[in-house]
Amino acid sequence: MDFFSYLCSMIGNELKPRIGFFGRRNVGKSTMVNYLTGQQIAIVSNTAGTTTDPVRKSMEIGGIGPVVLIDTAGIDDEGELGALRVEKSMAALAEVDLALLLYTEWGEPEERVERWCSEHGTPLLKLRTKAEPIDKEALIAQIKAALPESAYRGQSLLGDIVHQGDTVVLVTPIDSSAPEGRMILPQVQVLRDLMDLHAVAVFCQPEELASVLSGSSPKLGEVAAEGRRRSVSPRLVITDSQVFAKVASIVPDSIPLTSFSVVLARQKGLFDEYLRGTQAIADLKDGDRVLLLESCTHNVTCEDIGRVKLPALLRKATGKQIECEVLGGSDALSTLHSPLSAYSLVIQCGGCVITRQQVKARLLPALEAGVPVSNYGLALAWCNGIFERATRIFSHELP
Q1: Are 271 and 305 in contact (CB under 8 A)?
Q2: Which of the listed CATH numbers 3.40.50.300, 3.10.129.10, 1.10.1740.10, 3.20.20.140 matches domain 15-151?
Q3: CATH class of the region 167-261
Q4: pLDDT tens, residue by residue, 189-229
């Protein structure tokens, strides 16, 4: 498998629904994962505390499709290292779509998991182990019944906006921050969604956009009966956020315009919170701290959105000396050295490689602390003065 194929498979794993196994040490979590998968995925031992870090394994469940099973360390672990393992196990609760709590006795550790799931709306299955054999098919049936459909049934990105036969222009600049030899994931996801909707997708770079819209491109534009070309009148134009301002100056106001990041943010959930939170940019003052959350690990360039372009645009648009910090990869907000109350705004990336549940779990502490949250695409639209235009399509009927 080449590196690109490996990367795609890893991204695929990230987007699958997640089912976590929780419980005390030596309660049978690893045995249950091996039992369900029919493979020796997790190390099994009579020694308590064998599992130290979450172990992930993909499997196929009929009627649902691929899922990721997560085996975790015991929630009753002891000592300094044990406390860190418990913390990791509890953190894994935030990313699962369904939690299975295995127990032989019921006490404070189990109540802690049950309480967390109740407070955060995470479905919970309780399994008493080592009492009587657990039937695999019966357990899978329970999992299928408890796992929310929203976790595995794909939600269309544009199904309520774009219809069969509509033309959508996708503006995708190729610069130093673009991945070598391929499109970025949000662009691929939007294209696939348009294909599923039987819409017509037209790709171009910003430099070709005007000719595409006017029909003067030699290979685009409809050919009339007399041989003359007509302009393309798209249902929608979707652009990379980095060229929002340039594209907005080319696309007539009568044509709806938004970005890949905004489209993805809407599908990932918390869109209303993003819409409200983005308004907080106007209230930023000198010395305010803004936290930018990245969901993947990538090579940083001089044109990096979260670390370079967005901070510069925030300072330019507000005229304020704003301090911007980046929390990368899968690090949770709990790893911050400062309390969340120290930040005036949290801005999440598009989240193309994480699930709706992970986006929600990552931002929930900020929302609970009363800190406004936004999204890269929405923040970039605000900084470019076209926030209302970029979100208009999602709040009004198209003409």
Answers
A1: no
A2: 3.40.50.300
A3: alpha beta
A4: 899 999 999 999 999 999 999 999 987 554 444 444 444 44
